[in-house]
Amino acid sequence: MPTQDRNLWGASDAYERYMGRWSRQIAPIFTKWLDLAPGAQWLDVGCGTGVLTSSILASCEPAGVLGVDSSDAFLETASTSLSDPRVSFTQGDAQALAQGDDSFDAAVSGLVLNFLPDKDAAIREMSRIVRPGGTVGLYVWDYAGHMQVMRTFFDVATALDPGAVDYDDGVKAPICRSGPLKELFERSGLGKVAVRAIDIPAAFDSFDDYWWPFLGGTGSAPKYCGSLDDDARDRLSRELQQRLPTGPDGEILLAIRAWAVKGRVH
């Protein structure tokens, strides 16, 4: 199943339970690292439910933020939850932005790049709409490495069913490493490119707390779960429960890593 499937991220509430709660912890670290001056105009590309937009509003003192996304459901959630007069939302394509040249001081994106068919086009578009001297930045999950919430899932799933690899973002989204991210930004003509890892813990009260978001149907791993019959899904659940590190009271603690990259527009 291609990760570019437009139906992959259809339900905002399911996404929030699955990945949004972790992105909310990554976003403030990312925006602090960008280190933009107050009063900037920001564009949040692929704004989703407004996780990154919310962090910009809370900590960056922007003059304004425009969130762009292709999903009506996500835009409705974002606009409902963020009533700040400095923010607005519009539907659009990250690979062909409607905004004019040199319109913003910063263009950012959270957890979107790996799901765009033409990544070079997306970075060129983000660079185009940013004024000279402005910043382009984004972050993605380390799908192939230390994003243990998903890495453990797919390691177990592919051991049981080799066909699970078709859903594995660690395989299908190879630009989730520091080297390819840096090369992408430099290839797009950005200067002063920097990459860093952002690491946070992911604590679950129980196995059910870990497992239930995979049943929501939104995202690659939940889509894989939805493709299984009841017996195969139950077997996957049992094997995961055996594999995950579990504390004496049933708690599970995993590591999550995102890779962040930023560059300067000439």
What does this protein look like?
This is Methyltransferase domain-containing protein. GO terms for molecular function: S-adenosylmethionine-dependent methyltransferase activity. Pfam families: Methyltransf_11. InterPro entries: Methyltransf_11 (IPR013216), SAM-dependent_MTases_sf (IPR029063). Keywords: Methyltransferase, Transferase. This protein has 266 residues and is an alpha/beta fold. The protein has one domain: 3-Layer(aba) Sandwich (Rossmann fold), CATH 3.40.50.150. Helix content is 40%, strand content 23%. It contains ten helices and seven strands. The protein has a seven-stranded mixed β-sheet with strand order 3-2-1-4-5-7-6, sandwiched between helices. Helix 1 packs parallel to helix 2 and helix 5 crosses helix 10. The N and C termini lie far apart (38 Å).
Outline the secondary-structure elements:
Blueprint: H1 12-34, E1 41-45, H2 51-59, E2 64-69, H3 72-81, E3 87-91, E4 104-110, H4 119-128, E5 130-141, H5 148-160, H6 169-172, H7 178-187, E6 191-204, H8 207-211, H9 220-227, H10 230-243, E7 252-264
Parallel strand pairs: 1-2, 1-4, 2-3, 4-5
Antiparallel strand pairs: 5-7, 6-7
Helix pairs in contact: 1-2, 5-10
